[in-house]
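Sample entry as discussed:
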Amino acid sequence: MAIPYWTAELPGPVSITNIQTVTVTSGRRVLTDFYAAGRATIVGRRVDLLPTINIGDTVTLRLYNPNTTPTSLVVLPLRVADLQITYGTVAAMDTWTLSLEDAFATLGRGRITRTWSAGTTTKVAFEDVCTDLGLSYNTIVSQAPKTLSATTVTDENALNVMQTIVNTEQGLLYAYSTGLALYTRGWQQYTTFYAFGDAGGANTTYQQVQFMSMADNYATYVLVTINGGTPTVAGTGDYSYRLDTYALNGSEALSVAQYVQGALQDTTAVPNTLSVLLNTETSTRTLDAINNQSGVTLTLRGQTYTANIIGWTISSTPEQTRVTFQLAGTEQYNYLVLNNSVYGTLNNNRLGF
């Protein structure tokens, strides 16, 4: 039995059929994770019907939910990383496995040699790295981007360079098949929140919620370095976290350290994962929430929690499709956004750096 809800196409379009299972992962598990490649694995049958597929081809995955009105849809373009074919003793046993990846994988394999003068913005540096690697890009600027110190990188891993640029800005980064999107500081104002909960009626959709261990997303002592120099420290204690920046000066590095330390020292109990079975979902909210800049408002046992979606996994078999969101509480992104129902509440947020 072929898997429901999914289609896969090569340019043309050329359909990839007889799909049996699909697993897609994107984003981060916890706030302290650095960016890594999003990946998909597709397993199918009927090798004889498989079209010609080359490494680097773009495969556009589409996940539909026909149980909603209107039919909800998420489009996931990814690049081919590998194709494996396993032959059984008879043709009916033959299977193929298609491995896909997003642009973070291109960064991870790439090398960068660049010089940026003091005062170059994180926006320009981000776009330079994308240009050097042949990636498309989109920059969403909500506040004037931070500026860099005089920086030279020589044959350095492109993903590490990009991570350091984002550390300097404290923005958000998203990847597609052939490109990246950067949201600068103040990105919180673009967040769209989707309601889930156990209150009954249309709000009852999730299958399971898990709250996280504090140790997975917690630090009281943050060390920030500029180009591998002397660390700038914010906070005290044994729970430490370290990150590199291209910050313009020590004062800017300290601002980054204080901001990150303020986020990671939060001990409020927050949900870490929320999973939904698409087979029983009659709202478009689950697939809508897979898009960039999404969050959830979760009503659970009479209490309401708000959280940002920092990653997700979709796992599909012919029997069911499960979407699991990785969450970080909005308390850990305590950036003040005026007139915002989540980020603009009194005594809950503070000005950013």
